[in-house]
Specification:
Organism (chains A, B, C, D): Haladaptatus pallidirubidus
Cofactor (chains A, B, C, D): Zn(2+)
InterPro entries (chains A, B, C, D): Metallo-B-lactamas, RibonucZ/Hydroxyglut_hydro, RNase_J, RNase_J_2, RNase_J_arc, RNase_J_b_CASP
Number of strands of chain A: 19
Distance between the termini of chain A: 7 Å
Pfam families (chains A, B, C, D): Lactamase_B_2, RNase_J_b_CASP
Protein name (chains A, B, C, D): Ribonuclease J
Oligomer: homotetramer
Number of helices of chain A: 14
Largest interface: A-B, 29 and 29 residues
Radius of gyration of chain A: 22 Å
Strand order of the largest sheet of chain A: 7-8-9-10-11-18
Structural class of chain A: alpha/beta
Helix content of chain A: 25-40%
């Protein structure tokens, strides 16, 4: 059976991930993501209203023209988890393929919201939920399986395409977490089986984000322990404490909520995306927040909440807000500029349970945001965080576990591939033979 | 009563700490430390054999000539904890003063060993043990008290001199740890009392090492949780695992030992200073190591142990060795160069539970050491560590707790003082009035 | 005679410089500057319309309240050169003092324009021109002298106040340039005389911007040679070449203009501040630009010029534009966003004859600007520049030349002072004795 | 005609360069270099005494086993210039090939010395001089040509193999210098012709060292202008001035010598490699040093010279010495440690006309060296230097000039290739099609 892989997007950048696997006549697409930083370069762009071709020109969404070189039928579009760089282009591209969108329940829900927000295209693909551990027939001899992985968002999976020639494992976006705060540990047992059953693993597509970092990405429970240390240490403070983190990072939000209660503060989630992700997670029973916990997205309700907090006493609340990257319009930045009813005072604490994404634009915005916060007397706690991506040791372990015939680095540019290429070569792979450093828009023929 | 402070060493550098406080006729000296990096600049220097004046000229030990301007009798020499930058010059300078050396039990023991190693001077000062919480009369109206603090070595204290004019608190080398792995939490309650009793705090001398870092130094228990994550993650590995950390960091060594056992490996401590510090701590009952745990310092016994490990299987052991900074003669560096019987193999793990001290010399040596280790196939886990020094938020809290009339930054150069000066000014202090950025060899008259 | 120095602004930051010297009853004020970055933190602030007190609160202009503690009459307000951090607050503060503004001709002209732009206050102080080398009587025994120095703007001077107790030299903002491209070399001969005549130098106030950088700041002629290398290397290119630099840096603009002609391109200056500074310099005969060289400030005329360039061929022009820091509204940034009629094409060259001011906000904006330019195919040449501030070796030389009794570091925060303090101490000064690390709002009594 | 390229060494590192080109039956080898940093990892290694296989195992010299897969006869071994990473393995590997070593006159001389120093192998290959601009027949239809280029060593060339299928240009180690201080400008005219004659350029092998740096590498004349500024600025200093640079950088040494004379100091070259390179260059008439200028290599004569300098007055001399990277045994480091008769005093100047090679080992050593020099009062001038390797703009220009069908990045690891890959792709090349990011030990079949 012919096996081909189209590396459509995310092979020259982080963002706008998209990959297609053809096994015989059956094609499955993994991810259709957005490169947000390309959008933000342009002032006042509303992606909801833009046409695909313009977004492709901007480098914001995958250029899927290579799909026309791929003979076969698309049987499924499979976003691996709910981050925008993996689902953000679905509303722009999915309608071109007559195939269902298959994803884990939380991811499906986020895709649904994404599609509802779209103003240009009507996306009417079926939305199918499939849990980690489940499988789905794509063709006579081709099957799709979801393996549970751990990442900085819940309900993330790694999809596997089983073919007579071996399995193709799409390994993007995970860390090896044996004690995640929410959900199950990564299913290394199943990966080990896949590495050994039938013809083993034909190809492994790997996320190189942290490939150059030594050691192991710590478990979410390490971040949780760190966060606990921070929040417990200020439990006697009788002024304002504010926290921010990635809105989609439900496990972290959960930890924040719990420690808020431990130190006798009422947690409240504020900001459009805070409400969106946590609300969705709660509705789908992924997380159990306190019954009366407020979540507010619209600016008016947020400001009303802030007024109430000011009235009842800042010392009774822990607002968990958007703005960890210093985004100019996020809640925390507005607080720094004094645009909300919440008055920061000398000694108030602001906890960034997030890392600045290391790019000068973010660094500049975050710096501005911190300066504004400090001018009002706030004290910054930063980097209370661990990454969601494998480091060096995790990569060694995945190779050892899966023993893939071919390896395809992804989710980076060439510079980002470099340490992973070295790592693979130290394990016997050879660039250009069974290790494929590739680019957007390429086809890799694995079996012909 | 006249109160004067002599800032003798460690006010232009990290290292060779020494400060004297005169209250009326009674003088107490805090710390007599060594600046090791000044020694290492010179090849083949053996400090044991050098005269004080040469070491002063090299900038390696405090220049205590300002002591002759200080009228009064030295009543006690008080090292605050057992790190070399606080006790390393005792053997070179203490004999000039006819006063006992007063310190916590663990510190006294290390001072004793320091004196025994000295080849140039006979130091015969009395060695007196005093526990945290205890006090000692220095003069009619002057009393010395030890307050328990938490640092990266056990049995650290902050000494306080009580005078009719108020207390002088010598605050060097601590973090605010409420859940240390060994010993009691920092005694903030007592600091709060000292800040409020009698005339309050006249002067506070503060360690500025991390003054420019945002937020709070995490508890040792956060490092422990991180370390656990690392070691548990490799529990199925059937080859060599080696760890290194600061030898004097008994709490960390204890965590390493315990997690070694958890993953079914016999811990063994190797290297001269590993044996020294851990042996001393165990003898004094500060820590309870497994009865049969080996500790070996002499190269011959170390190599014999390595031979045994190779014979019985590396997978059964976890050697905890010296060499976290890539010191050329330390055990781990020797292992990297293949100079020991321990054979590193592809995939073996080396855990640095330490941070590179950020200075180009260390960075160069550590880099060389890691390259050698990697050439043999080792995989590096680094930065499994937290600092022992207060960051920004701890400094705010100490000022709030003690409410000192005068503040004296220490344990840094002018550049290192800078963020602490800003911090104090944000709390109402004013440089040159009640905030004293000073230099080695100065006298500060607080009450005349 | 009593001598006092008030360190009003620029002693905790770079920006909003202001210092007053009192000699007996005569007071002279040096600089009244603006801290632009404080203004930019706030959206949509128009400084022209703001009241002094609001600007003081923002930290944008000097807080001159300490002036009320200074007995004596202000006899002159002396801006040392035309940069905004030295003259930008004159329109907000000068009217409070009934004294003339005395400055070199180019600086006076810029002050005049500054005052004309002011919308809140009517500043009616006399404007007096005084050339380098000239003197002016301030009181019976007190005289003001201007010494010629070299900086990144023309007609910069260091003012000296001669008193019976010795000279006070205000040394801000210079480099030691013996072959500047415009104007005379620094007058080290006069400094040497001042160091030796009468009672010598009582106090020297020094600019610490580059105190921590090794060696010597290169001459402007080194930057010119570098720039020549860059522009000559692209002389065969037949597309667009664009250059940007500090608008006030007339010597650099002159070099750009000359090399443009050498490679057969018509230079044209575009952008509001380009027109302002170069126009002023030309009108005052400081520089001789080609007679027909265009300078356009208003957006309309700029765009008209761009249209003409596009029509007549980009290969015939070298636009010299604003935007070297990536300022969002500057000309080059607009070109990057495609908002001007000038079309960048693949291979076009953009020369940044400037350095990014090392602060995350600028770095972020400049990064954005470069990304936009590159997306259109432009190729960036950066850092074709030398600083206008003394490095280490210049500081040594000034101390040796003036042999001041007292030294007062300025133009930095405490961290920026640190290397200069070390340097002075290596030359025998002592912090707190004759070396005064001070803060905004202090009075230093030198003779009483 | 079959055309193959073997990428033997320097495709995963900087150092141990070696590449072979086969055109039909004729093979030519470019470079046989040493990776010095691999040697220095090991203590006390003397490469002169080591066997090739051990050096290959250490990664110190190219692993040329792939040569056995290359059918055809080696007709010439062509080192492109005299740096060790290009000629340092000749004494270990050349004897395996019965072919002459063909190089420019200066390079040949250095190869000869290299061979004479070898203690393990007898290398007896013919040494043939060939000038830039000359050609040599390798086979019936295959010709070798040398094109003059500019680099940080004199007499550097880029070899070109002319075949019926087009030219293969080996482009390692050059900058585009139109006003070099010694020798002719780069011969871009000839490159342009080669790009257009016959079948044009089949393949171009490019040095990626600085591919990620914006703009253009400045001409050596820019470094010269900078150096002049530094040395002229200290012409009135009446103490010691010492300079250091790359010994093989004859143009820089020449500038140092000339400026020494301009400021009335006698230049003298000290250190083994200073004598070697400059002596060779003078003997071959590449440079014209003052007749009586001393050059001393042996430690005894160096020390004798230092004694004479001390006696006759340091103010009369400018020693130009080895040690720019802080190498522990180099002359300047010995001076820093006070091991030579030359006494540094407070205020003496040390000029590093070199850049620290950015690797932690060098950075650590250089830092140590500077600290030692400063402890003796020396003042450091650093980075008076420009690189010898093309930056971004030079790469664009070479592609435009040669218009090669295939491009092969070299002289870097994968991370170093990354920006060059991006650059080539922006010019229409495509990774894996006509852009070959390869590794040591590969064969690339261009025509079969």
């Amino acid at each position: 059976m012919e096996i081909e892989i189209a590396t459509i997007g995310g092979y020259e950048e982080v963002g706008r991930q998209m990959t297609a696997v053809r096994a015989g006549d059956d094609v499955v697409i993994f991810d259709m993501g957005l490169n947000l930083s390309k959008v933000l370069l342009h002032d006042n762009v509303e992606t909801e209203k833009l046409h695909s071709l313009d977004l492709i020109d901007m480098g914001a969404i995958p250029d899927d023209r290579v799909m026309s070189d791929l003979e076969g039928d698309v049987k499924a579009i499979v976003p691996t988890h709910g981050h925008l760089d993996h689902i953000g282009a679905i509303s722009k591209l999915a309608h071109r393929y007559s195939a269902p969108i298959v994803a884990s329940p939380f991811t499906i829900e986020l895709v649904k919201q994404q599609i509802q927000g779209e103003e240009k295209f009507g996306v009417e693909n079926d939305l199918m939920k499939m849990e980690a551990g489940e499988t789905m027939q794509l063709g006579d001899e081709v099957e799709l399986e979801f393996v549970n992985v751990t990442h900085s968002i819940i309900d993330a999976i790694n999809p596997v395409v089983h073919t007579p020639e071996g399995a193709i494992v799409y390994g993007l976006d995970k860390r090896m977490d044996y004690s995640p705060v929410l959900g199950d540990p990564i299913d290394m047992k199943r990966f080990r089986e896949i590495g050994r059953e039938g013809n083993g693993v034909l190809a492994y597509i790997e996320d190189c984000t942290n490939a150059g970092r030594k050691g192991r990405t710590p478990s979410e429970s390490v971040a949780r322990r760190h966060l606990k240390d921070v929040l417990y240490s200020v439990q006697d403070y009788d002024g304002g404490i504010v926290a921010t983190t990635f809105s989609s990072h439900i496990a972290r939000v959960k930890s924040l909520v719990e420690f808020a209660q431990d130190i006798d503060r009422t947690p409240v989630l504020l900001g459009r995306s805070m409400e969106k992700y946590s609300g969705t997670a709660e509705r789908l029973n992924f997380v159990d927040f306190p019954e009366d916990m407020g979540m507010f997205g619209h600016r008016k309700s947020v400001d009303r909440t802030f007024k109430r907090i000011m009235k009842e006493g800042k010392e009774n609340y822990l607002p968990i807000v958007t703005g960890h990257q210093g985004e100019p319009r996020a809640m925390l930045t507005r607080m720094g500029r004094g645009e909300t009813p919440y008055q920061l005072e000398d000694g108030d604490k602001v906890v960034f349970s997030a890392r600045v994404i290391p790019e000068p634009t973010n660094e500049g915005q975050r710096y501005q945001s911190e300066r504004l916060l400090k001018m009002q007397g706030a004290r910054i706690f930063d980097d209370v965080h661990v990454s969601g991506h494998l480091r060096e040791e995790g990569h060694y372990e995945m190779l050892d576990t899966l023993q893939p015939q071919h390896v395809i680095p992804a989710h980076q540019n060439m510079k980002g591939y470099a340490p992973y290429v070295d790592l693979c070569e130290s394990q016997g792979y050879r660039l250009g033979r069974d290790l494929h450093a590739t680019r957007n828009g390429n086809l890799i023929q694995l079996v012909d």
